[in-house]
Design goal:
The chain is of the alpha+beta class. The chain contains one helix and four strands.
Length: 89
């Protein structure tokens, strides 16, 4: 991929591919790369389980329009992080 410094790159998830666990234990998220709106290639973002959990927590805070803190009591966690009888884990 010989991009010049001024070539706009767009990254998006491949909508038809779910996040998957690889044999090495990482979680893979398939992505499309486009340059100037033209498809360039597929790539996969690999996250360790710890990185995926951190991303999950940060997304929950962002979806709840809250600023994340490192450690929060259960009562102050965003809704998607609370465990209860109606929540799946």
């Amino acid at each position: 991929m010989g991009a010049t410094p001024h070539t706009p790159v767009q990254v998006s998830r491949v909508p038809s591919k779910p996040v998957r666990r690889e044999d090495d234990g990482t979680l893979a998220i398939d992505l499309w790369l486009r340059r100037d709106g033209v498809f360039d290639t597929d790539v996969a973002l690999h996250l360790t389980p710890a990185e995926a959990e951190l991303l999950h927590a940060q997304l929950c805070y962002a979806l709840d329009d809250e600023t994340p803190a490192l450690i929060l009591p259960e009562a102050k966690r965003p809704d998607c992080r609370k465990v209860g009888p109606t929540r799946r884990r």
